[in-house]
Sequence to fold (689 residues):
Amino acid sequence: MNTDNPLLDFSDLPRFDLVQPEHVKPAIESLLTAGRELIERLTAETTPATWRDFAGALADGLEPFGRAWGIVGHLHSVNDVPAWREAYNQMLPEVSRFYAELGQNLKLFEKYKALRGSSEYATLTREQQKVVANEIRDFRLSGAELPEDQKPRFQAISEELSQLSAKFSENLLDATNAFAEIVTDEAQLAGLPDDAKQAARNAAEKAGVDGWRFSLQAPSYGPVMQYAENRELRARMYRAYATRAAEFHDGSSKPEWDNTPVIQHMLELRQEEAKMLGFGSFAEVSLAPKMADTPAQVLAFLRELAAKAKPFAERDVAELCAFASDELGIADFAPWDAAYASEKLLQKRYAFSEQEVKQYFTEPRVLGGLFKVIESLFKFKVRPDDAPVWHEDVRFYRLETPAGDLVGQFYLDLYARETKRGGAWMDEARARRRTVGGIQKPIAYLNCNFARPVGARDGKPLPATFTHDEVITLFHETGHGLHHLLTRGEELGVSGIHGVEWDAVELPSQFMENYCWEWTVLQGMTAHVDSGAPLPRELFDKMLAAKNFQSGMMAVRQIEFSLFDMLLHSEFDPQGRSTVMDLLDEVRREVAVLIPPEWHRFPNSFSHIFGGGYGAGYFSYKWAEVLSADAYAAFEEAGDPFDPTVGQRFLDEILSVGGSRPAIESFKAFRGREPSVDALLRHSGMIAA
Ligand SMILES: [Zn+2]
Fold:
């Protein structure tokens, strides 16, 4: 290989000091060629179906490609200048084609099955066996095992489903964009914050109309529902929002954007696909690679949670309606009053200034606090380290054992830039695994989009300050990072977060968020930017109260969506007499506390399950919350958020095992029992008094 190309230098850390966009094409092309040659060789009849000659050789052989393409993808995300965007997009179709070939290569499937059936299989490590099992499962789910005469139909269904999914999203987007509410009398906008008004003013100018223009996009719609005193305005916008991509053709919507037939057809095709694969329902297909076992288990989980949350949700609603009636003069409470009245109630009860809180979370304190949490919990030290980086703001650290041995390393890129994609995320630069040269240590990227430090005092620059939400985000991503870095995995396919079921992968990240709510941790992690004083208790109590504001109402809403999704893909018969809306009405009667009007068409805009990958998977949000809350409760029961025995067990049974065994086994090994919903209810303030 051409070693002049820094993308092909795999000796240690990525060469961010040398890599240029022009290196991408030659490097990726040569790695893809090498990858195809390798697959050709490994699938030859003369290649024995052993771990060493086949499965291990395949993982080892493709690892350099994964790392090089990972660097390109990372730079595309954090340094999205035209040259890098072009270099990335130029190779993306080639790379996608390579992965598609890999997933459809039946010779690979045959080799994995031969290995699974060989006498060697019993002698493989637990990790190696899991890698083989996962590969076989994924090939099966993509139809590799179907009789030849059924494959064309299966392929046609898959393609049609992706088209329908795209159509669903397009219809929703077109319907969302077609609506505009123009207001010409400023008095009608009372209550709206200035920035929301200004944005509407700009939108009107852009559209060439007088006054203020509001749309159904979140940044425009949200503030109207939350702040506008004009009830008719809220009601009109609410109805437009709730009937997007539905059968009503009043005003802006069009018949061809109706998602009702799209949903119907998707449900039929998903059911047919499931039957072909030998499953009872699409929900069973969806659950096959997840932690949850059966639709019945998920339904029981959601119903248990609903039964416990509903009394609190009812209390929330009663309180809201009473407040709306007594203090806002709204006697006939309607759904379009909910966000507005809630905002007023929140302000009245628990008002505190986000800006005030932010003054306490200075960057050096926050990072120091985070690293101290890691050290107290797991005994690993975080130390500054050196590496070539892609921007001068980026920092690099190493994790060490108490004896000073290297565990892993990570980059920290905290600040927002114009060339960086939004949000926060963890990604890997390199995974832990065994190589011929020994153990390769893992490396992670932690990326956030916080405001950089501004201003100076007495000639000294002021530190950056973070909102509490940003601090939580940082802890969350660090949780993913620790899952990646603290693994003891030796096989790429199940090392760190590789191979972890996606309804379990948020456990370590959400677990870490809990430390942002520990009073003792916050004491050490805060210092007012002017006075240096730690966060006052009174302010913390208000933050806690606001955190649990309307938690019952919010919980039953998420449960309503999850239950609807799971029933729709398990018990509902798309060919039957009752409709999707009938099912939703039934679910609402069971769990909801705020019943929307009869014309509300929630399914027609439920993108997660029809336009995204969450079909029969929406429950994962609540599922992961339950797991992380219950894991944290083990520390609460020990009476110490840093209890050393529990910390060691969390490391041994959850973090370090990664995807090498089913997540439920890891959880039970840590907790000594099945997950329980009680801790989540308690953390959300939902405990029976
Ligand atoms: Zn996450």
